[in-house]
Amino acid sequence: MPTDTEPSNTVKLLHLVFLSTSWGMQIWVTFVAGFVMGSRLPRHTYGFIQHELFPYYFHIGSACAFLNLTLFAMYHPSEMLSDEQTTQIIVFFVCVAASVLNTQWFGQATSDIVADMHLIERSHGLGQEVGLFTSKSCKQLRASNPSYRQLSGQLTLYRALSSLCNLCCIACNGLSLYYLAAHLPAL
To answer: Over the stretch 105-138, which tens digit does the pLDDT of each residue have?
Structure first.
């Protein structure tokens, strides 16, 4: 039930835990783990790890975004919102929307396409190359196999959309952290 009273310390702590969990996970997965694993593991191993971990990543991010929106909205009734608080509600809503798109559509579609591509690559003895970039053999396969070429095009599209949603969530959580920091009376 919305209220104009100050949230309890427990509610503040929960809000901070959800926001920091989401932000930390996003930074780690996007800017550390992805590049390290992608540059040191065989491509199929890296793809398998992403296939197993990303559903958890996307679901946890969606849950944190939804809970942050809910907690913030509960203590900021719409009829009492300042412009800054309205912006914060919008930021939380955008984060929820982008997270849910990744969870329910882009992430799963990307994972399914990668699995299909791995089957084709395995049948041609490919996939054990190490590194983030496509090998010469995969480029040749793309040029000679119309099915693989189509999957490659779909993968590019869905990865771009998923990355865009992910970066949107990182930006939203960064803005939310800034909002919280700006309202701290002391450190």
So the answer is: 999 999 999 999 999 999 999 888 887 666 788 8
Angle at 161 between CA 111 and CA 88, to 5 degrees: 120
Exposure string over 30-46, b if 16+ CB within 10 A, otherwise e: beebeeeebeebebbeb
Q: What is the pLDDT of residues 18-56, one digit of tens each?
A: 999 999 999 999 999 999 998 999 989 999 999 999 999
Q: What value does the CA radius of gyration of the chain take, rounded to a whole number of Å?
A: 20
pLDDT at 145 exceeding the cut of 80: yes
Which amino acid appears at position 12 of this protein? K
pTM recorded for the entire structure: 0.90
Query: Rounded mean pLDDT of 70-89?
Result: 92
Query: Are the C-beta atoms of 67 and 14 separated by less than 8 Å?
Result: yes
In b/e form, how buried is each residue of 161-183, taking b as 16+ CB within 10 angstroms?
bbeebbebbbebbebbeebeeee
CA-CA distances (angstroms) from residue 33 to 82, 118, 130? 39, 21, 15
Helix and strand tally (H, E) in the chain? 7, 0
- Could you please report the per-residue DSSP string of 141-177? HHHH-HHHHHHHHHHHHHHHHHHHHHHHHHHHHHHHH
Residue type, 178: Y
What DSSP designation does 81 have? -
* CB distance 15 to 68 below 8 Å: yes
